[in-house]
Each structure stands twice: as C-alpha cells, then as structure tokens.
Design a protein that fits this description.
Length: 101
C-alpha cells in the first residue's frame, strides 16, 4: 500500500483569499478550490480553466492541498499522487466564498 511521506509537512494555514487568488485578480471563473497546506495559497482545481492549484505546486513544490469549498476533509499529495485524510484538520474559511461557473 502506498503512503504519503509529506503528511508531517501539513501546517495549519490562513487562506490567502476568498476564492482562487489568481482568478479573482483576472476575473476568471473556477469550478472548485484547493488550499495549499504549506502556505495557505487558494487556487482553482484541475477542472477549472486555469489550474492554479497545480501551477502553484509546480512553482513552489508545496506537496499537499486540501479540498476547500467547503472544507471537505480530504487532501491530495502531488508528489506521492495519493489522497490524504484531513478529517479533523480542515481549514476554516475566512468568509463567504463567491460562486463561479
């Protein structure tokens, strides 16, 4: 069974924005949000046109994201390509998230 070597790196973070940080700046739409559990960057999922969460991983190497709209209790490690259980460690939203798409 495959395991994630990066769960020890999960941090309690403050979300960077009330929606995908880059999409809010450009007026783009997103489908779902992902939260970086290293720095708090909020990006859009891979079903969104701009894939900002994955781009953030490629730019920073921060391995684990959290399903964030609403906090869903699961995470994903880009490095190990495995789901991570975040139940009991979800991140609270800073306020209402605007809906797009």
């Amino acid at each position: 069974m495959k395991s994630c070597k990066h769960t020890a790196d999960i941090r309690d973070v403050t979300p960077s924005a009330l929606g995908c940080e880059e999409c809010l700046k450009t007026g783009s739409a997103w489908v779902h949000l992902r939260l970086c559990r290293t720095c708090g960057h909020v990006g859009c999922c891979d079903s969104s046109p701009n894939l900002h969460a994955t781009k953030h991983f490629h730019n920073t190497g921060h391995p684990i994201i959290e399903g964030y709209d609403p906090p869903e209790g699961w995470g994903w490690c880009y490095v190990d390509q495995i789901a991570v259980d975040l139940s009991g460690r979800t991140t609270r939203q800073r306020g209402p998230i605007p809906r797009y798409v």
